[in-house]
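DM from R.C. (forwarded with permission)

"hey, sorry to bug you on a friday — could you get me a structure for this? deadline for the figure draft is monday and I only need the backbone to look sensible"
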Amino acid sequence: MGAARRLLYRMADTRPHRAARLMTRRELASQAGVNESTIRRIEHGHAFVTAGTLRCIATALHLDPLLLVIQGGEASLDQGAPHA
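My reply, with the result:
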């Protein structure tokens, strides 16, 4: 039996959602429990995230996680996607 594949998601830019809540990148990172550099990489389209990270960021923004996933933006870790 092979190793389980870890599904990763490309997220939409969080800046409009942060701005609507008057949050800085640092505040979002703190509330989501991730590094500020992770938020920066997501906002610039340079990172895929796990379902857990996606859920934490969406919760911090008071959004449904599905609103932050870019359609067709899935990859598995074994495909070499840059992840946060």
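R.C.: lifesaver. The radius of gyration is 13 Å.
me: no worries. The longest helix spans residues 51-60.
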